[in-house]
Amino acid sequence: MRIASYNVEWFDGLFDDAGHLIMDSGWSARRDITRAQQIEALGVVFTALDADAIMIIEAPDQNRQRSTVRALQNFARAFDLRAQEAVIGYPNDTQQEISLLYDPAALTPRHDPKGEPGTTRAPRFDSTFHIDLDIDATEDRVTFSKPPLELAVTTRNGTTLRLIGAHLKSKAPHGARSRDAVMRLSIANRRKQLAQAIWLRQRIEDHLAAEEPIIVMGDLNDGPGLDEYEHLFGRSSVEIVMGEGDMALTDPHAARALTAKLTAAPTSARFFIQPEGRYLQALLDYIMISPDLTAHTPRWRIWHPFDDPACWQTPELRDALLTASDHFPVVLDIDI
Fold first, then answer.
1. Taking a C-beta distance cutoff of 8 angstroms, is the pair 141, 134 a contact?
2. 266: containing domain
3. What is the pLDDT of residue 141?
């Protein structure tokens, strides 16, 4: 079975309110790329992936006028994808949903959130997490701007497992007018992101304690060397979510990045830094599996247009990956 995680930059901007693709020459939210160009590129990438399930980060918006599921299913039909059904969990207010696009002949996913609002440990992801973020004996209240998508999944072979799609994000220091204000707000936002990682890790540990296989995937927006504030905290969000010891999740790309010092680490995203006139590459996207799933011959791959030989040697796919999004798909092939 092939499972992918793919952050599609501003996917929502490619659909009208009825969920139809806007195939025109108007500008997309991607720099110097039209909507038609981004749509065609995404069609190439999704077709090449040929995945049984794709966890889409920044999926089209869900609100009173717009439907994430309708938009994704229209996209799938437009390119005749096997993965033609979609499921969403708790919608959010960011116009960037988390949704699973899947092949119903390969697996059956069901939105199955755990936890209860108001509990002190691992409350439901659409509620509030209480934690002291800065050791001042004052309880902080943390929420997800994008509540993780929790799915109970049964594969066609009868395997049952948990699948969690997540998009952790530390907000930019909007409104800060001085260097000190930027620093204070950046550190506060980073603390909140780490708290979200702790919240997510508590849920993971509950599933592991119940001996439920679990895959955690998505954009954690954190990793070694990502910003100048990481040295203030003992661990990154990635390390918190992965855990340690017998209950640690496995992702070889994350493991390599966390141990890399002088060697090049894997990357899954590429951003243009306008003031510096250059591109920044980072590892932001992950597929982490529980220890019991490591016996099912897992094989990971980042579809990076420059680092992956097959992508580089296929010009149409290479160009499409660069046009479609600022992130590249992370793929897990596993026998389940």
1. no
2. 2-333
3. 87
Any idea what DSSP says for residue 44? H
Rounded to whole angstroms, what are the CA distances from 209 to 83, 118, 131?
Answer: 32, 22, 22
- Please state the domain count of the chain: 1
Q: Where do the DSSP E strands lie in 65-168? A: 85-88, 97-102, 107-111, 129-131, 140-142, 149-155, 160-167
The CATH number linked to 248 is 3.60.10.10
**Contact (Cβ atoms closer than 8 angstroms) between residue 84 and residue 39:** no
pTM: 0.92
**What pLDDT score does 127 carry?**
96
Residue 254: is it exposed, middle or buried by C-beta count within 10 angstroms (0-12/13-18/19+)? buried
Task: Give mean pLDDT in consecutive 10-residue pieces for the chain, a chain of 336 residues.
Answer: 97 98 96 96 98 98 97 98 98 96 98 92 95 72 94 97 91 54 64 92 98 97 56 75 96 91 83 89 96 97 97 98 98 98
Query: Can you tell me whether residue 124 is helix, strand or coil?
Result: coil
Rg (CA), the chain: 19
Strands 53-59 and 2-7: parallel
Burial class (CB in 10 A: 0-12, 13-18, 19+), 263: exposed
